[in-house]
């Protein structure tokens, strides 16, 4: 069985089961045994395909994300950022935010999870966002030396974290679109 590839459908099913379990029990209580039982797989298969729990969780999170921001090109930065928000709905945003809050808590005690999330989730998202910003600079929408360019990821992550912390409300599309127009775009001179 070594070297066998899962079908895309089976892989998606496994990832969905991992995320469901993660929501139910949290990262620390999530076990490869529970994943194997839930997905009718063997633990050996899971380890052969993904190597470790952190890798499997990070890949499940990556699979759960819509197309990366680097693939979006509407011709304007505002259009790109709004299109990025449109890739998800309020329910999915709420679920994803809850998952990320749980995982952010878990990374403090799990350096392997931290590394896997950085490599498979954070860095690809940041690279895609940097591509959006580069195109906006190339189009002349933003000055290349605008100091806010370096802080766009911080602004976006901050919006997600702050909404829950300050208002005790989950992130939603309406809030994010308003935040982009009121905070991010003006900071970039738009």
Please provide a written account of the structure.
- This protein has 190 residues and is mainly alpha-helical.
- The chain is built from nine helices and no strands.
- Helix 8 crosses helix 9.
Short description:
This protein is mostly helical and 190 residues long. Helices cover 70% and strands 0% of the residues.
Features:
single chain; 190 residues; mainly alpha; 0% strand; elongated
How would a crystallographer describe the biggest sheet?
Answer: none
Mean pLDDT score, rounded? 88
Task: Tell me roughly what share of residues is in helical segments.
Answer: over 70%
Please report the number of helical segments.
9
Low-pLDDT segments, ≥5 res: none
Mass-distribution shape? elongated
Report Rg: 18 Å
What is the first-to-last residue Cα distance?
55 Å
- Note the beta-strand portion: under 5%
SSE pattern: HHHHHHHHH
How many DSSP E strands? 0
Look at the helices and sheets and give the structural class: mainly alpha
Describe the SSE topology:
Blueprint: H1 8-25, H2 32-39, H3 43-50, H4 53-64, H5 77-86, H6 90-107, H7 111-138, H8 152-167, H9 173-187
Helix pairs in contact: 1-2, 1-4, 4-7, 5-9, 6-7, 8-9
């Amino acid at each position: 069985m070594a070297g066998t590839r899962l079908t895309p459908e089976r892989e998606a099913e496994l990832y969905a089961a991992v995320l469901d379990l993660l929501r139910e029990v949290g990262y620390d209580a999530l076990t490869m045994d529970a994943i194997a039982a839930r997905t009718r797989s063997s633990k050996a298969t899971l380890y052969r395909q993904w190597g470790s729990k952190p890798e499997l969780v990070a890949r499940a999170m990556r699979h759960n994300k819509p197309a990366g921001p680097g693939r979006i090109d509407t011709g304007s930065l505002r259009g790109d950022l709004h299109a990025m928000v449109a890739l998800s709905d309020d329910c999915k945003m709420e679920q994803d935010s809850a998952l990320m809050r749980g995982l952010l808590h878990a990374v403090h005690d799990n350096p392997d999870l931290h590394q896997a999330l950085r490599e498979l989730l954070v860095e690809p998202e940041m690279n895609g966002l940097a591509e959006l910003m580069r195109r906006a600079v190339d189009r002349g929408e933003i000055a290349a030396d605008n100091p806010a360019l370096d802080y766009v990821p911080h602004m976006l992550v901050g919006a997600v974290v702050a909404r829950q912390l300050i208002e005790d409300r989950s992130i939603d599309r309406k809030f994010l679109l308003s935040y982009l127009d009121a905070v991010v775009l003006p900071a970039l001179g738009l």
